[in-house]
Amino acid sequence: MFIDSSAVVEYLLRSPQSETVADRMKSADTRFFTTPTVMFEAVSVLSSRLNCTVPETLALVQTFFRELDADIIPITPEIGLAAIDAFARYGKGQHPAKLNFSDCFSYAACKAANVPLLFVSDAFSKTDLG
Phi-psi category of 114—alpha, beta or left, where left has phi over 0 and alpha has psi -120 to 50? Predict the structure, then answer.
């Protein structure tokens, strides 16, 4: 299962859908995957919402992924090109899904890993991953 930053933020903030995220992770029948772009976005959002320093928030996000034994997928040239394609197909100004930079990389890496996507937004539900 590929974990998008929206799911990380939801879970770590104990937001309304955090239990749904936890249940989906518990019932996953694949390994967990993410990317450095997901980690970047999660840290940048969480540091302000939790009023923590970047190093503190990074430690929290790293612990989350370490406890899941998640594989960090490197951003390869192929994933970069697939993210550009995702933007052309589903990006802001291109499609109702309105995928942003990080979303496009999550989409591309999820496709590369060939696993389901765990997300908490309606953006991905408007793509072929939905």
Answer: left
5: tokens are 């930053």
Distance, in Å, from the CA atom of 76 to the CA atom of 120, rounded to the nearest integer, reads: 25
Domains and CATH numbers, the chain: 2-121 (3.40.50.1010)
Q: What is the mean pLDDT of residues 12-34?
A: 94
CA separation for the pair 29, 31 (Å, rounded): 7
CB 126 within 8 A of CB 91: no
The predicted structure's pLDDT at residue 75? 95
Q: Which pTM does this prediction carry?
A: 0.91
How open is the CA angle 83-86-91, to the nearest 5 degrees? Answer: 115
In 10 A of CB 49, how many CB atoms?
Answer: 13
- Which residue spans within 48-126 are E strands per DSSP? 71-72, 117-118
Residue 130 has pLDDT above 80, yes or no: no
